[in-house]
Amino acid sequence: MAASSDTAPKTNAKTTGDDGGHSAGLSRWLVVAIPYLWLAIFFVAPFLIIFKISLSDTAIAIPPYTPVFEGFGAIGDFVSQLDFENYVFLTDDPLYIEAYISSLKIALVSTVLLLIVGYPMALAMARASSTIRPTLVMLVILPFWTSFLIRVYAWIGILKPDGLLTLLLHAIGLMGPDDQVQIFRTDTAVYIGMVYSYLPFMVLPLYSALEKMDHSLIEAANDLGCPPWKAFWKITFPLSLPGVIAGSMICFIPITGEFVIPDLLGGADTLMIGKTLWTEFFGNRDWPLASAVAVVLLVLLVVPIMVFQNQQKKVA
Amino acid sequence: MKPSRFDATVLALCFAFLYAPIVILIVYSFNASRLVTVWGGFSLNWYKVMWSNQGLMDAAWITARVGVISATLGTVLGTLAALALVRFGRFPGRMLFSGMIYAPLVMPEVITGLSLLLLFVALGVDRGFWTVTIAHTTFTMCYVAIVVQSRLLTFDRSLEEAALDLGCPPVKTFFRITLPLILPAVLAGWMLAFSLSLDDLVIASFTTGPGATTLPIKIYSQVRLGVTPEINAICTILIALVTLGVIAASISTKRAELRRIRDEHLAVRNAT
Amino acid sequence: MAKTLGPVKRKFSPWMDPAAEPFIRFENITKRFGTFTAVDNLTLDIYEREFFSLLGPSGCGKTTLMRMLAGFEEPTEGRILLQGKDISNVPPYKRPTNMMFQSYALFPHMTVEKNIAFGLEQDKLSKGEIAGRVEEMLKLVKLEQFAKRKPNQLSGGQRQRVALARSLAKRPKVLLLDEPLGALDKKLREETQFELMDIQHSLGLTFLIVTHDQEEAMTVSDRIAVMDKGVIVQVATPAEIYEAPNSRYVADFIGDINIVEAAVKETRSALGAPGLVELDSKGLSLAVEQECAAVRGDTVAFAIRPEKVRISADPPLDRSVNAVHGEVWDIGYLGDFSVFIVKLEDGRVMRAAQANVSRLVDRPITFGDMVWLTWPVEAGLVLTR
């Protein structure tokens, strides 16, 4: 009796179980597969293509490159035709190397400037009373929601030789009526633009690291005889390091490839790789060279991007 | 902690730095004079000029459509991606997946733009409205994924287990329990995606084609020629739209917060 | 005092009946998370209408065991049978079990009414039927006037009741309760324990409760399984668990107890044959009357509950009882009881508890007094595990 009554319901349970498990498994699979495929096609595949095209010859056709790789039968051809001339060209022409170095330098200086401006701001926000903190956060986020382009553009009117800054300095008498501010179209203007545009990106990670810090830690340090400034260096700053790293990476990486700010605020001698790439692409229509420029830029940024990803993973 | 004078000064200076250029831009959009540095009295003239600039208006319309479609697609994909990241533990290729979510956040736009363009060329797709939309979907979905992910991380999973336990199948549980509860984050993700799409110049420049000039591309081409009050006017409108959106959203969160506090008081009264 | 008392309880012990079919059977269940073994080859039978507790410290595998029954975790090895049917492959939304979650897991966007109706809606019952059942449940947990409230408009105790009503609404074959009273304050917890017992009794359901609170388990359960590191150490009634723990672990986990290492000097006992066991613990001679499989020379533990130790300033007259001499080191006044901490001559410490039967302020025994601790041979325990 036990055997017969046992088997029938068991098979029953088994089928229902499998059925349910299957549909759940399918929807689970779709949840992963859909965004995965989308990103694989529109984010990863383009990088493979850019890499491939950077190895091909320039042609004066549209698309302006000679395809290197046609079909899977041509792998031998592909290898034999592989062509590093674009990369050789990049290393031959000092313009490109200088542009890379200059980009990294501008990004580094901008990031340091952002830390110098952003840290006290984030700290002041974190120390503000909890009633006004949400408002302060919103005030930092709000410019971030408004167009990047518009915010950079706004500085042109201020920094132009006949712009509002000159006017202001004339008005308060810091400058003779015939002098003009010579900032527009210089690296200084680029730095101002960078700090201005990226400030929210620096402040928010710093703030979130500082804000969740337990204030009793500082009180404990003070209680144990550590003066406030020392408590800052020994307690607050080390604990905010994840925020410092996150903020620095979020700023440093895109600034290295920045185009809009050097283009609108920088001068002819402001060398940045994003601008160079843009010119190669839209001006000289040399797609393979532009691709090679992009690949090298990517290689330069691989380490900072890895650091950023690790940081994000730790937070999540 | 006591609000120190130092902190107040820092905040005042920083916010002045953040807002002064925007305020100046808005003020000068109402300037009667064409010269940016000379105040010629209040005027709405430039708004009229802007309104009758067909090219600018067309670009605005295209941008709005790209924004709505890409933000919606990006929100769906980003929400799925967030679920995959938070809920499905280990799956093959998870490392690559999370890398694909985080990398676009910091990737220089010139690289993303160029590489997408080359993909479209390789696929033989005509560039235009849809290529820009796809490009925007791709980078905005990552922002949405981050926003929704942070909400899901604090989501009490026993709510979903309770629904399953009461006989609700998994997909239905998602729509009846999970989605309603993470909806604020999903909507915030949508707004962020929309505003990012609205702002983007570089990626759109690479991936656009004839007849799909977006507003930032239009503004950029005019800005290169110099500051004009007409551009100030359209910028002011964009700023106003975004600001209103953000303020409306924050007021509704504030309301929800107040309601929650009131409910808790009610609960405490009940208990006694 | 409870306002209303439920029906008088009858003696209930199906586990003593060899013919009784178990309602739930965990059969050689193992659950591993990566390299960590949460449940280790565990076998357990639970009978219909039983109020069964899984008791143990956090991380002992009790919650994992319950979640496997609910269907949220799949056993790595073994089977789970419900009324003789293997339910291992049935997804949670198709199992006839319902769970009351530790966090209550009330849906915050639904009213109390909607929360309770949620499970019934999944069964596609008619509107009228659902409304009737919801009303019945609200009445059962005395929350009729809160039907339209949202969970965050309720107090902790009310939320707990909604969670209970929701999990009972589908009339599950087994109700699983995960630390159901953990979030309530002590007084409310005690009241609710009795209500839970009444509900279980009047609905005639099988309850499986997971708790780390030994008092709670003792109060509500028909039987308790004490778990440690993924295995069950002892399954028995609360009284057996307390009075006849089978191991040092159980003796130490439940209630307060004195435990010392000892060697068997002489034994007239075997398994199934109670007799006198004489022990030597670092020169102290102790005697216990019980059934015990240990043989001469074995190292065992001797255990005795403090309330079974008598404290007195005078030496015992009866030579057959155990007696040790020491100095009162500390006294803990607990209201109903006082606990005397006595330092024995060899430096070891023993606790004795005495009920404070009169409102005597100047107790006769005080700090520094030399006292005798005595207990009869049937009060102590020899623990071989």
Describe the overall structure:
The complex is a heterotrimer of chains A (316), B (272) and C (385). Chain A has 316 residues and is mostly helical. Chain A has helices at residues 2-53, 75-81, 85-92, 94-127, 133-145, 148-159, 164-171, 187-211, 215-223, 228-239, 241-256, 260-265, 273-283, 287-315. Chain A folds into 2 domains: 2-81, no CATH class; 86-315, MetI-like fold. Chain A is built from 14 helices and no strands. The radius of gyration of chain A is 28 Å and the shape is globular. Chain B has a single domain (5-271), classed as MetI-like (MetI-like fold). In chain B, 79% of the residues lie in helices and 0% in strands. Chain B contains 11 helices and no strands. Chain C has 2 domains: 14-96 and 172-248, P-loop containing nucleotide triphosphate hydrolases (Rossmann fold), CATH 3.40.50.300; 256-383, OB fold (Dihydrolipoamide Acetyltransferase, E2P). Chain C has 8 helices and 20 strands. Chain C has a 6-stranded mixed beta sheet with strand order 6-7-8-3-9-10, sandwiched between helices. In chain C, strands 13-12-11-14-20 form a 5-stranded antiparallel beta sheet. The longest helix of chain C has 18 residues, at 186-203. Chain C is globular, with a radius of gyration of 25 Å. The mean pLDDT of chain C is 85. At the A-B interface, helix 1, helix 4, helix 5, helix 6 and helix 8 of A face helix 1, helix 3, helix 4, helix 5 and helix 6 of B.
